[in-house]
Amino acid sequence: MQPVAQDQSVIMRTEGVGKTFGSFVALKDITAEFRHGAITSIIGPNGAGKSTYFNVLSGAFAPSTGKILFEGRDVTGMAQHKFAHLGIAKSFQITNVFPLLTTHENIRVSLQALVSRFDIFRPRTRLSELDDEAEALLERVGLAGQRHRLAGSLAHGEQRALEVGMALASHPRLLLLDEPTAGMSPEETRTMMDLIVRLAQERTVILVEHKMKLVMGISDRLLVLHHGELLAEGTPDDIRRNELVKRVYLGQREH
Amino acid sequence: MANDLAFESSRQPSPLLEWATRHRVALASLFLLVFPLVMPFKALAIMILIYGLYALGFNLLFGYLGLLSFGHSALFGAGAYLCGIAIVHFGWPWYLAIGLGLVAGMAVALVIGALAIRTRGIYFAMVTMALSQCVYYLFYQAVDLTGGENGLRGVNLKLVNIAGFEVDFLNPLSRYYIVCGFVIAALWVLSRILASPFGAVIEAVRENEARARASGYDVTLVRLLTFVLSGAFCGLAGALLALHLSTVPIETMHYETSGLAVMMCLLGGMGTFFGPFIGAAIFLLLENLVSVWTSHWQLFVGLAFMACVLFFPRGIWGTVMDRMRA
Ligand SMILES: Nc1ncnc2c1ncn2[C@@H]1O[C@H](COP(=O)(O)OP(=O)(O)OP(=O)(O)O)[C@@H](O)[C@H]1O
Ligand SMILES: [Mg+2]
User: Closest-lying ligand to the alpha carbon of A50?
Assistant: First the structure.
């Protein structure tokens, strides 16, 4: 809440962010900035702490040390559900949909979070504008033909797309995606990357990925994590040339 | 839950089911209105109404939200006791006493809920059970008000004045229809809740808590509110029980009564609109019929329950609904 000297070009900032699980240090003193309107990718080998950092950024857990600022506002330790209302949305590394609701209902209930949460007596059909909005979002993520399918019965790639659709439902200014192409076929991966590039035209995107090659082409900036530390930061070219990064990724041939 | 997907991978709206869902309150009411005419034991029919309502309140939490509470006897019992106490000790009119029972159910739900709601799964079941035992103990100790071990006696109601008409509450059939009026109102309210925007939130939280949270829902508050709403139905059921029995046995608050709600709900079909009444009917009918010819009725009811869970994992009514969908 306190006014912080704010650089308009920075949407999110972390200052000395750390996270420990018991005695295990998963994240150490990360100070970084995410630029407004850019695609920033967080990369690093398995277990580097990417998801941990992602979870801190998306409010899933509070950092053990440090601060998080969103649009200049301190949001450290704020409850997860409030992040959606601030304008931060996310999709999980492991697919998270409402399996026994239809594709359409999945999007609809996500849209509803912004307009009606504790309305227990009036009929839901009153909010019919949400149906049209849900329809438009389904189209956006390429699921228009699947509106009556139960989300749990969709193919893996479709579920991931659905989750992106649900994240978009809160009209986020910042979209956080944790390995959105995990477990996808090359075909599905291409579709998803195209979608992300299109979405990034209207909002800031932070992408977590361990396959470096996949994000090099589309990212404006990259953060490289290794053993919970920020190893390097810069443009794709900076990162490509960085000796430390080369060494970390050496030997683990990329897909 | 996962094997549910085998039943239906798409939810193409089936016209019959849609029609039935739209008119679920009317259809359920019709059934309940006709029920005592085909049912020889009126007092048992009233018990089915009351326990059906109790199981319905439990089902809102268990079936729709996916939270297993083992403490619902405290909500049911609080409704029964407060209604009874208002009549016996304070001479309140019956309708206010029923209202008090309903509010008592909500109040106890709020307290138990606030303390237990952050725990998950089996821990939630254990914490709610422990807390309900505390409530049991409180009522057990307050002998002056509750009659302690002997239960609360003398909740007598002979004549009920409804809009200027005197109705004989001692006549089993008219008593059935008075109770039925409350049950139908409760069914209508439940249907409204399920069809409301909040009803969609309840389902979403059941389906995926983490996703619901990420979408912007305060899951803890959703749970607490649902628990309190569940308490309203159970409190009302308790109040009706006190009036029907003219006494409140201390067993009403016993944890076995909590288990009863679980059983009835599973028998009928968790997460179905009318399942709790089917479950209550089957359970109470079995109990009454079997106990006529053997004192080991619990054994047989238990076996029937196991068979039911094995062969109809979605409950009797749940299975019927699945058939309609297919
Ligand atoms: N809740 C937790 N409790 C204990 N340790 C954890 C927890 N979450 C993560 N860790 C540990 O923290 C380290 C970083 O995990 P994290 O999930 O952030 O890695 P990652 O970079 O996302 O890896 P991946 O590419 O496999 O997704 C790992 O060693 C992991 O075992
Ligand atoms: Mg990860």
Answer: 1
